[in-house]
Amino acid sequence: MTSVLVRDVSLNFGSVEVLKSLNLDVPEGEFLVLLGPSGCGKSTLLNCVAGLLDVSAGQIFIKGKNVTWEEPKDRGIGMVFQSYALYPQMTVKGNLSFGLKNAGVPKDEIEKRIARTAEILQIGPLLERKPSQLSGGQRQRVAIGRALVRDVDVFLFDEPLSNLDAKLRSELRVEIKRLHQRLANTMIYVTHDQIEAMTLADRIAVMKGGVIQQLDAPQAIYNRPVNRFVAGFLGSPAMNFIDGEVGTGPAFKTGSISVPLDRYTFDGADSHTGPAVLGIRPEHISFGDAAKSAPFSQQVQVELVEPMGSDTLVWTKFGGHNLSFRVEAEKPLNVGDQVLIGFDPARASIFDTAAGNRI
Amino acid sequence: MADTTLDPSAIAASEPYGPRPRAVFSPRNIFLYGTLIVVAVYYLLPLYVMVVTSLKGMPEIRLGNIFSPPMEITFEPWVKAWATACTGLNCDGLSRGFWNSVRITVPSVILSIAIASVNGYALANWRFKGADIFFTILIVGAFIPYQVMIYPIVIMLREIGLYGNLWGLVIVHSIFGMPILTLLFRNYFTSVPEELFKAARVDGAGFWAIYLKIMLPMSLPIFVVAIILQVTGIWNDFLFGVVYTRPDTYPMTVQLNNIVNSVQGVKEYNVNMAATILTGLVPLIVYFVSGKLFVRGIAAGAVKG
Amino acid sequence: MSETDTKRPSQLFRNLSAKIASVPMILTAVFVFVGGTAWTIFYSFTNSKLLPRLNFVGIDQYERLWAAPRWQVAIENLAIYGVFSLVFSLVIGFLLAAMLDQKIRFEDTFRTIFLYPFALSFIVTGLVWQWLLNPDFGVQAVVRSLGWTGFDFNPLYNAQIVIYGILIAALWQGTGLIMCLMLAGLRGIDEDIWKAARVDGIPTWKTYLFIIIPMMRPVFITTLVIIAAGIVKVYDLVVAQTSGGPGIASEVPAKYVYDYMFHAQNLGQGFAASTMMLVTVIIVVVPWAYLEFGRRQRG
Predict the structure, then answer these.
(1) A105 and A128 housed in the same domain
(2) Which residue of C has its CA nearest to A75?
(3) pLDDT tens-digit readout, A6-30
(4) In sequence order, what are the residues at sequence separation of 6 or more whose Cβ sits closer than 8 angstroms to the Cβ of residue B288?
(5) Given a cut of 70, is residue B12 above it in pLDDT?
(6) Which residues, 6+ apart, have CB-to-CB distance to A127 below 8 Å?
(7) Owning domain of residue A268
(8) 196-255 in chain C: CB under 8 A from chain A
(9) Taking CB atoms and an 8 Å limit, are C52 and B151 in contact across chains?
(10) Min Cα–Cα distance to chain C from B287, Å
């Protein structure tokens, strides 16, 4: 059953098109992540779903009900903000209950919901404190609690972890995932952090310029990005892009190197020739003995070594272009070493140079 | 996305669709704009009355009402206010006060800003031991009523032979402009990235070279804010003018007050209003020309109280 | 550091340019602000007349001051004027700011109109309102000519209410500034707070009352101090609008000081009165400074 449905939604600020005729269908219980660089319209879209921004055209349905003109409070949503947006002069309990009191929820019901929320988020001991007496992580928990007490079907998260330091962020990330498993509510989560997106999402919508570039499961987006933007935005260290062209064979040619593409699955029609970009993730490149058995292998010279602790990133030249690959940290590699690398062209992505689309 | 449970064509046809319908004449808008317009009229009325009165002849003022527009426009009150209105001491109108005010304002603005900007720069980037103590005194001193310090300054100026002299008043304005201006510049220079300052020092530039070649060129907006603050503040001053100058060097505000509130002769309200507008003209022009910078200036100036 | 120090000629000449640049500040701080204030307080215990003389009379000047009807009127006026201008400029300033914060059209125009009187001097303000409140030609005369012949609004010539006439002019001149400060405060509020309140379904007025205004406490306090400091200094406005009249009905402390120092040739009285003004300011500013800066240092 569809939980949130966004239908042909556009939004213009003056002459600037922030959202361009967007469609999105979120099934009930799904954790959907809107991912993209700043200014891509992901937060704007979330605000439209919440009813905090008026759409210029199109419609929004929540639980089958057309809520395009509804006030946020009547949409059956709860929202968590990046800056927590806790009411600073009220206690945690006051923050949780203010909206409910205002909606005329009976007192004992309020108490019940607060108790349940406090139990779920383990903020029971904090109820009488003011936000200024809480740590960043605790504040964000209270902010999540404020969405929780509303007892709604859909939760909206607007970059909730961006103000936290790296350690807290990964802790709360796990907690949000746990929360979703326990409550099984629909959640729409905006972030620019690809790791958050990969770890949390059932599906990711990668956005750019007010348009959803790709909407799919995290692994699908990671392995088969639809265009060069999506390919470059996801993955760290970033995907290697090698300029060249697709010739007959089919094969990808760059400099003096030719990569056979008979194992590669082309999108749609099979006869693509002309300028193209080959994308290959550093972790999909094997080296040494493993490379010998790879469908494609090539001798390269080590130019730079970046040890990263758990593994090491090695930079070389490939057909005149920079290329990085990952090796285990223990492998002793030095600048100037000649090594054999290899990869399976089936795991690569090939993009049209001009349009950037996957071919 | 294709597995929508709702029929797309049915959705597209049905309302609600697009932005929420908003009535232009909702009760909220009527109340909001109604109140704002009434208040705006109230704020504009004195200016309007000033202008209308100054363009009427005295007979019309005696007969008519202050809000009615002039039946016959006359510029005579303006001429008289500028050139021949009497203060009880002399009869050469506001022109004398105007030029006195120019002679006071220009050097005061330049001197006060020069002192305060260099000082703020020293406080921000070249801190020396004890500087903060004097700065604290300066800021706290901004809250001391001027009346407490008026007389000691009279004595000091008399000692150095500047009492009653325009330059004496220039010094007074520089002194009392110092707390707010120094704060303004110090805060601004502190916000300049320190790396820039360090890089210049590594390149061998000294105190004055860094000030003139790096800080000054990149601080023009704050200088404009300071100029706005000082021009309006000094032009509008009355207390220092009346205390530290003599009748022949009175600034425009003092001259204006003496013309309007002089007890001799028949009250000529049109001349009075023309004189009032003339005196208010300089700060008003500064205000309307500078726009948002003025707001910044007064927000900074307000800190001084 | 100590190594390089030994090479330098003297501690005093280190950073010499900065010290030279700070000479005016040091002179002002030491001689005018500290020295001048101390001098005035010191001489307020003398019976200086035309010239300052070191003839101590204890607290004579203060006793005479508080016994003087003119000073009592001045203090009473300052209290009335102070309380009302505090309340009204805060309330009006905030309401105007809140209205301008509703994403309205022509915001800049309205702001420009509300603020322009602040560009004008108190002298100009006082003279305009003197004219508007003129009983024979101003508002009273106009309303009477419209048919309400019994209409009575003559604050400038009625000793009972003259201070309110000055208050009207002062509010006209100053509320624009308060509005600007409040507007800056409102704009400084995290937009997510508004969003959160909307999601919670809190009506706008409740959001202002229970969330925004409590959040703006520092802005209110700072504004309060700014207004208060301005109140104590009120002088030019009274001089221009009423010259302290009718009689002594609109006298204020600052005017008392000036008149005794420069007209009545009774410096001692002037010094005592100005010292009392200083005390008033201290009563207002010290608790604020303690709250504002004392807490920050510890926090």
Answers:
(1) yes
(2) C199
(3) 999 999 988 899 999 999 999 999 9
(4) C112, C116
(5) no
(6) A91, A92, A93, A96, A114, A118
(7) 240-352
(8) 196-203, 206, 210-211, 214-215
(9) yes
(10) 6
Work out the minimum CA distance from A30 to partner chain B, whole angstroms. Answer: 14
Residue C230 belongs to domain spanning: 60-298
Q: Do B43 and C15 touch (CB under 8 A)?
A: no
Other beta carbons less than 10 A from residue A149's beta carbon: 23
Q: Would you say B235 and B283 are in contact if contact means Cβ atoms under 8 Å apart?
A: yes
Q: Within 13 Å of residue B13, how many CA atoms lie on the same side as its CB?
A: 5
Q: What residue in B sits closest to C109 (Cα-Cα)?
A: B40
In the numeric block, the tokens 């348009």 are attached to A211
Q: Is a pLDDT exceeding 80 seen at residue B136?
A: yes
Interface confidence: ipTM more than 0.90: no
Residues in chain A within 8 Å Cβ distance of C215:
88-89
Residues in chain A closer than 8 A to C214 (CB atoms): 88-89
Q: Which CATH number fits domain B95-302: 3.30.420.40, 3.20.20.70, 3.40.50.1980, 1.10.3720.10?
A: 1.10.3720.10
Residue A109 maps to a domain: yes
B6 touches chain A (CB under 8 A): yes
Which amino acid makes up residue C188? G
C146 contacts chain A (CB < 8 A) = no
Chains adjacent to A (≥3 CB pairs closer than 8 angstroms):
B, C
Tell me how far apart the alpha carbons of residues B82 and B278 are, in angstroms, rounded to a whole number.
8
Instruction: Residue C65: give its domain's CATH number.
Output: 1.10.3720.10
Cβ separation A50–C195 shorter than 8 A? yes
Same domain, A223 and A114: yes
| Closest listed residue to residue C180, CA positions, set C88, C118, C242 | C118
Task: Tell me the pTM.
Answer: 0.87
Across A95-99, B91-95, B162-166, the highest mean pLDDT is recorded for: A95-99
In chain B, CATH 1.10.3720.10 sits at 95-302
Min Cα–Cα distance to chain A from B16, Å = 6
Residues C242 and C170 sit within 8 Å (Cβ to Cβ) = no
Q: Using a CB-CB distance cutoff of 8 angstroms, which residues of chain A are in contact with residue C207?
A: none
Residues A23 and A109 in one domain: yes
Among candidates C195, C203, C211 on the partner chain, residue whose Cβ is nearest the Cβ of A81: C195
Rounded to the nearest 5°, which phi and psi values hold at C249?
A: -65, -25
Q: Verify that A211 and A67 share a domain, yes or no.
A: yes
pLDDT at B225 over 70: yes
